[in-house]
Amino acid sequence: MQDLDIDGRTLLDSAPDGILVADAGGRIRLVNQQVEDLFGYTAEELIGQSVELLMPQRYREKHTSHRDDYASHPVARPMGPGLELIGRRKNGTEFPVEISLSPMETAAGQVVTTVIRDVSERRRLQEESNALRVELETERERHRIGMDLHDGIMQSIYAVALRLELILDITEENPEVKRQVERAIEELHDVSRDIRSYVFDLRPRQFAGNFSNALMELADEFQQNSQIETQVEISPGLPTIPTSQAVSLYLVVHEALSNVRKHARASRVSISLRRVDPYIQLSIADDGTGFDPGGEVPERHRGLRNMKARARAADAVMSIESQPGGGTSVNLRIPA
Ligand SMILES: Nc1ncnc2c1ncn2[C@@H]1O[C@H](COP(=O)(O)OP(=O)(O)O)[C@@H](O)[C@H]1O
Ligand SMILES: [Mg+2]
Predict the structure, then answer these.
(1) Considering Cα of 21, then 22, then 23, then 28, what sign does the dihedral take?
(2) Residue 273: beta bridge partners?
(3) Nearest CA to ligand 1 atom 26
(4) pLDDT in tens, 189-247
(5) Which one of 47, 76, 112, 255 has the lowest number of neighbouring Cβ atoms within 10 Å?
(6) pTM attached to this predicted model
(7) Is there a contact between 284 and 263 (Cβ–Cβ < 8 Å)?
């Protein structure tokens, strides 16, 4: 294999992908620097070894027969199209790869040039974008359910309540009927409040305009639906929070409020945005039952975890101060 000399390697070393040349028997004849880096072997350790060294044990036997097939129909093509190809490093760790093969006639006989690309990063991005898509679809579905509840079921409840009010008007002389109808109206109010709380949880969490207004609108809506007194305090003269950050913070506040309604049995909650040098601090503080924020939370309760992740996405650090019986304060420190 005189034609594959050291100069050939210098050229191949500048390629971005791993390049490996093997002979018809599957022996490695040449590798570039990227192959050494990818697999953690030196060229000396690889030359003369069979290419199966670079794949996990479980694929080796099968590969030997694939290699024989290829030798009888050598054409340029990707290896194992549609299959997940895995490389194995010297230290035994595995990583996803993409491989293309092309045959080449040389003075020393037929060889196969193999281009190997590490696709771990691409896989990771793909998985991330799949997860985002699922989240978006879920969000759309929640929106739809929220709208159905709001526009359909709530309207029906109003209609029934109205009819009961009418009955009340014409049955003034029967105190027992009057009492029962009044109770039914009260119960309907409770049902409607419950539904409005669900709608609050399900609605699309978006806002237009600035963060302060969005917080005030959210607080208003929350107070109406939860009957928990909700205050917003925003110090004057704070720097504007960019929308991309504000969206994440808004979602955290939404989830925190949702927790207050579901868990805290609070009578008041206050949302504040103020300067606590060198940060801007956003707090959601309730006067409810409190809990142990250091305690284990079962996997299916994802609210606090999501809040933390969203805070991170906004460059903020979230901390929770809470004691059983002593109320809860969720604090976010945003670099000013
Ligand atoms: N403001 C709060 N007051 C009291 N308990 C809370 C509060 N926020 C969270 N918790 C507790 O933390 C747990 C985890 O919250 P979270 O991760 O949002 O999950 P979920 O709301 O689905 O239970 C809740 O089940 C509750 O016990
Ligand atoms: Mg929650």
Answers:
(1) positive
(2) 234, 282
(3) 263
(4) 888 888 888 888 776 556 667 899 999 989 998 998 888 999 999 999 999 998 888 88
(5) 76
(6) 0.59
(7) no
